[in-house]
Amino acid sequence: MAPCGVPWRLNADLAALQQRLNHSFNNVRLLERALTHRSFSADHNERLEFLGDSVLNLAVSGLLFEKLSDLPEGDLSRVRANLVKQDTLFQIASTLGLATALRLGDGEKRSGGHKRPSILADALEAIIGAVYLDAGFDVAAVVVRRLYGDLELNTQMSAMGKDPKTELQEWLQGRKMKLPAYRVVATLGEAHKQTFDVECTVTEFAHSERGIGASRRAGEQAAAAAMLQHLALHAGERSA
């Protein structure tokens, strides 16, 4: 019988997922929350996603610092950006089989939410955050290294195109300016089909730009792209 009123099928999915992660949760409720979309419950995974994003970036940074020891900082940043972007996270989440374990509201299910890249990428970050809370950073970093184990890390990855957030960050860092600040101004639409209105602010110019995307991450990228356009017109040349 499933414990604590949790459906047996979900428990089976959670057990299989823990095997694929090679991490057995001390508090399986953290894993359940990591797989819960806001369309399903008010106790959803967005806070864990926020935490997991930071844990993932630090773990990947450590991995790249070790594996690509000859690469300069700017190239390391570009490689990391490609490793933590939505497309890469979606591929890893798909390989893990997260779709079968996601908890989605009825509307999100009908609209194919279990296949949506933004939802799967966010769930993966939430799982990383859950592992961090469950067992600490060292264990979370081992899980991250395992998730990226099938990806070949090489110096050519730095030649891949920069995303707007990375390009904006490098533009500001090259001029000894503070990093941009991002905040969600509004969440629009129904729970199963939301868009995020995000504001990007550059303190030195006392200027903000807005962007809208199907996920918080996509909204940030759109806002960064708008800021880059503004800087190209009003603040001199943009970095190549």
Explain this structure.
The protein is mostly helical. It folds into 2 domains: 3-159, Ribonuclease iii, N-terminal Endonuclease Domain, Chain A (Orthogonal Bundle), CATH 1.10.1520.10; 164-234, Double Stranded RNA Binding Domain (2-Layer Sandwich). Helices cover 54% and strands 10% of the residues. It has 10 helices and 3 strands; from the N terminus they run H-H-H-H-H-H-H-H-H-E-E-E-H. It has a 3-stranded antiparallel beta sheet with strand order 1-2-3. The radius of gyration is 19 Å and the shape is globular. The termini are far apart. Residues 1-9 have low confidence and may be disordered.
CATH topology of the largest domain: Ribonuclease iii, N-terminal Endonuclease Domain, Chain A
**Percent of residues in helices:** 40-55%
Name the CATH superfamily classification of the largest domain: Ribonuclease III domain
Q: Separation of termini?
A: 60 Å
Major sheet summary line: 3 strands, antiparallel
Report the portion of residues in β strands.
Answer: 5-15%
The global form is globular
Strand segment count: 3
Average predicted local confidence, pLDDT: 85
> What sequence of helices (H) and strands (E) makes up the elements?
HHHHHHHHHEEEH
CATH class category name of the largest domain: Mainly Alpha
Order of strands, main sheet, comes to: 1-2-3
Classification by helices and strands: mainly alpha
How many distinct folded domains? Answer: 2
Total number of helical segments?
A: 10
Contiguous runs where pLDDT drops below 50 for at least 5 residues: 1-9
Using only CA atoms, what is the Rg?
Answer: 19 Å
| CATH architectural category of the largest domain | Orthogonal Bundle
